[in-house]
Design goal:
The complex is a heterodimer. Chain A is mainly α. Chain A folds into 2 domains: 1-31; 76-305, Orthogonal Bundle (MetI-like fold). Chain A has 15 helices and 2 strands. A two-stranded antiparallel sheet of chain A has the order 1-2. In chain A, β1 (62-65) and β2 form a beta hairpin. The longest helix of chain A has 34 residues, at 3-36. Chain A is globular. The two termini of chain A are 48 Å apart. By secondary structure, chain B is of the alpha/beta class. Chain B has 2 domains: 39-155 and 314-363, 3-Layer(aba) Sandwich (D-Maltodextrin-Binding Protein, domain 2), CATH 3.40.190.10; 159-311 and 395-433, Periplasmic binding protein-like II (D-Maltodextrin-Binding Protein, domain 2), CATH 3.40.190.10. Chain B is 46% helix and 14% strand. Chain B has helices at 2-14, 16-29, 36-40, 52-68, 84-93, 108-111, 121-127, 136-141, 164-169, 181-191, 210-216, 234-248, 285-288, 326-336, 339-345, 356-363, 372-380, 396-411, 417-432, 441-470; strands at 42-48, 72-78, 100-104, 143-144, 147-148, 151-157, 159-163, 203-206, 275-280, 296-299, 308-319, 352-353, 385-388. In chain B, α1 (2-14) packs across α2, α11 packs across α12 (234-248) and α18 (396-411) runs antiparallel to α19. The radius of gyration of chain B is 29 Å and the shape is globular. The chains are: A mainly alpha, B alpha/beta. The interface between A and B is large, with 34 and 39 residues.
Chain lengths: 306, 474
């Protein structure tokens, strides 16, 4: 056998299990969902009818009547607003992760213990965390309102209030994300900043803030770009677990995200798999657009600092 | 090459690890080598739920059934309540489901229109199965479009639990079957003037969900065909306003309850002793039975303008439409629902058995510290007592979502009741008026272009990535 051919065959043989798994469990469902998005497929309904762009028109279209213009699916736009609102937590959690990484980058005795403790929330069961936070947010006996009570502040009914439900979820999200993988990535990036740059800054008489602003921060640009891109992708897709466990999307849909809406469409109510697939593909386009935009802005920013 | 493979294989087999592996494989395969008798048995799967006592009783019932029907093997699987609908949907969609399945009453209008569960009427007619012993309200809850899709296992409706100590403290007469809404309101308002042992204001009533109040006050949701949605009907508006007033005008209920009327983490619960009255069903009895600090009892739901109209709650057994053994599944269902087997399971007071003979017999004879007769009369119906269910339509979950979301806003005082109901009506009407989309040439061309664009963009991006990878690093 030709040695080059043998090498190729060996390589493909090693890739085959993963490739078959990818095709069966990732590619095939993606293609099927693309097809379903153009049908009126309903769970348990035997006949599927091709309806072209009907689902997308019902989702994204508008109609006009005597009262003015109205969205065909006003819920979609509201849930999209909820999804984007919840992404306010992304820069906050990134800043918190960076702060933690800077603190954990010091040469102190027992620093490994602190790194473990800060990373613990990330490896705890998500369900358990949501249940604990739900109790913490309790209007009467929750620890947060109890502490606010000591300070003479009347705490809101966090998860039952339309005004406070989303900020409550953002606070919980920041707590969970701050000490997670983002912190690890920043920690690794901080280790990669050359000492010579800090020495040069010291020689020039730079303060701690100036060192961070002009030495550390530019060196973290690639890590920041990566974390921001992945967080945006995760932000658009996320919010399902929190909504399902803590709030069931309420009160009055104020914590329903696009991800939870897709689940509700496909597995609740009319069981519209076709419509749910259409929403998923619209979400994909949004995520793709946000990622490309981020890529363009981020790459040019990286080049400025390179 | 072949010689090498054979030698290597033999080596593996004869090595210690190979022997262990071979033994493990034999052990794993052994159970599948069943006897001929086992292979000829018809395997039925029963999907059910309940507490540990009920499950143990059901398993024993199935063992007794197998003794009477040696050619049938029953496998009992427990399905947790919360994820039941998703489990059923996915399993039935995949073509695998229990043969006899326990359904919540509200699930019948989801599964019956999609022909996922069998209409039992042909079986009932064929065997002259006597339905006379069942509570009619229980049978009604599982009917859809003229068919009978389940036989009820148990059923109940809402009643009024009241704290006798608080009533004595407020010098109020205990509620009875003559109580109307005005009597209820008067008592609730007097109870909220009291303070509990911790100095907190007593809650007059926990009202549970809106449906029973809405119907009793003369309101309506919609008809079964959803040809008329009555959300903004003046009678419905007035009925919802009464429910709203319980919290915001008369202050006899707590404000932090969601529309479903219950918050499991709330401090204001009946068991704590700071709630004068609580609307709930028999499912609260196991929890209330442990109350030691005060005495309590049960009264009928207060009658409104349209009498006493309360919502049904219960579970039933149905047969999966694609079962391989429909006749055997029907035999199992009949056995499970037989009077003798229901009597064995009629312990405790979590729910009322669906057979009148069992409910009024063994079940009612149990020792109880409360008025069992009231519970039985509440499910019996008759006169001004009506037990109801939501509109039986597969689109109802969507329509009810609009109602519940708008009512959440109204109950949280974000919008007025009128505005909320108008909003729900508008959304429901728009939803029902959706036109069936007919695709044209534009759709076909557009989809073809979109598919090509996706395919070529994947090729383009992968080639760009390849080009970048091959660029010399500076």
């Amino acid at each position: 056998m030709n040695p080059k051919l043998k090498r190729y065959l060996t390589a493909y043989a090693f890739l085959l299990p993963n490739g078959v798994g990818f095709m069966l469990f990732m590619l095939l469902p993606i293609l099927v969902s693309f097809g379903l998005a153009f049908t009126d497929c309903q769970m348990l309904k035997p006949n599927i009818r091709f309806i072209g762009f009907g689902n997308f028109i019902n989702l994204l279209g508008f109609y006009h009547d005597s009262a003015g213009w109205h969205a065909n699916d006003p819920d979609f736009w509201y849930y999209l607003y909820n999804t984007i609102f919840l992404m306010i937590g992304i820069p906050i959690s990134m800043a918190a992760s960076l702060g933690m990484a800077i603190l954990l980058n010091q040469k102190l005795k027992g620093i490994v213990l602190f790194r473990t403790l800060f990373y613990l929330p990330h490896i705890c069961s998500g369900i358990a965390i949501f249940m604990v936070w739900r109790m913490m947010y309790h209007a009467d006996v929750g620890i947060i309102n109890t502490i606010l009570g000591w300070l003479d502040i009347q705490g809101p009914d966090w998860l039952n209030s339309i005004t406070w439900a989303k900020p409550a979820l953002i606070i919980m999200g920041v707590w969970g994300a701050a000490g997670g993988n983002n912190m690890i990535i920043y920690l690794a990036a901080l280790k990669g900043v050359p000492e010579s740059l800090f020495e040069a800054a010291d020689i020039d008489g730079a303060s701690a803030w100036q060192k961070f602003r002009y030495v550390t921060w530019p060196q973290l640009a690639p890590a920041t770009f990566f974390i921001f891109t992945m967080s945006i992708i995760g932000g658009f897709q996320g919010g399902f677990n929190m909504a399902y466990i803590m709030t069931q999307g309420g009160p009055s849909g104020s914590t329903t995200t696009i991800g939870y809406y897709i689940f509700n469409m496909a597995y609740d109510g009319e069981l519209l798999l076709g419509y749910g697939s259409a929403i998923a593909w619209v979400l994909f386009v949004l995520v793709m657009g946000a990622t490309i935009l981020n890529w363009k802005c981020g790459k040019s920013g990286e080049n400025d600092y390179a | 090459m072949l010689k090498r493979i054979v030698c290597k294989s033999l080596f593996l087999i004869l090595s210690r690890h190979g022997q262990l592996l071979l033994a493990a494989m034999i052990l794993m395969l052994a159970p599948s080598c069943s006897s001929k008798e086992e292979a000829e048995k018809k395997n039925l799967t029963l999907w059910t739920s309940g507490d540990s006592k009920t499950l143990a009783a059901i398993k024993q019932t199935c063992i007794d059934f197998e003794k009477l029907h040696p050619s049938i093997k029953v496998n009992v699987e427990f399905i947790a309540g919360k994820s039941r609908t998703q489990k059923y949907l996915i399993s039935m969609q995949a073509g695998k489901s229990g043969d006899v399945v326990m359904f919540h009453w509200a699930q019948v209008s989801v599964f019956a229109p999609k022909k996922c569960i069998m209409d039992l009427k042909p079986f009932i007619r064929r065997d002259n199965y006597d339905l006379g012993d069942y509570f009619p309200q229980g049978l009604m809850a599982y009917q859809y479009d003229g068919g009978q899709y389940c036989l009820p296992v148990n059923g109940s409706t809402l009643v009024l639990y009241y704290n006798k100590n608080l009533f004595d403290q407020a010098r109020l007469d205990y509620p009875d079957d003559k109580w109307n809404f005005d009597d209820f309101l008067h008592a609730a308002q007097k109870l909220t003037l009291l303070k509990d042992k911790d100095g907190r204001q007593v809650v007059g009533c926990l009202p549970y969900d809106i449906s029973s109040w809405l119907w009793s006050m003369g309101g309506e949701y919609a008809d079964d065909g959803l040809s008329r949605i009555s959300f903004n009907d003046p009678r419905t508006v007035e009925a919802v306003r009464v429910f709203w007033n319980l919290r915001h005008k008369w202050n006899i209920s707590v404000k932090n309850l969601n529309l479903a009327g219950s918050d499991s983490t709330s401090l204001d619960v009946f068991e704590r002793g700071n709630v004068g009255m609580s609307v709930s069903g028999p499912w609260s009895l196991p929890s209330y039975s442990g109350i030691k600090d005060f005495t309590w009892d049960i009264a009928p739901f207060p009658a409104g303008k349209k009498g006493r109209q309360t919502r049904y709650a219960g579970m039933g057994y149905g047969i999966w439409a694609k079962t391989k053994y429909p006749d055997e599944a029907w035999e199992l269902l009949k056995f499970l629902q037989s009077r003798e087997e229901q009597e064995k399971r009629a312990t405790g007071f979590t729910d009322i058995p669906s057979r009148k003979s069992v409910a009024y017999g063994v079940w009612a004879d149990q020792k109880a510290a409360f008025n069992v007769k009231t519970l039985l009369e509440s499910i019996s119906g008759g006169g001004d007592n009506v037990v109801r269910v939501f509109p039986k339509n597969e689109l109802w979950p969507n329509i009810s979502r609009y109602f519940n979301e708008s009512m959440d806003l109204a109950m949280l005082d974000q919008i007025s009741v009128d505005e909320g109901l108008n909003r729900a009506q508008r959304k429901a009407d728009n939803f029902l008026a959706r036109k069936r989309y007919v695709p044209g040439l534009v759709d076909y061309v557009g989809i073809a272009l979109a598919s090509c664009a996706m395919f070529f963009s994947v090729i383009f991006l992968s080639r760009k990535f390849q080009t970048r990878k091959n660029e010399p690093k500076t």
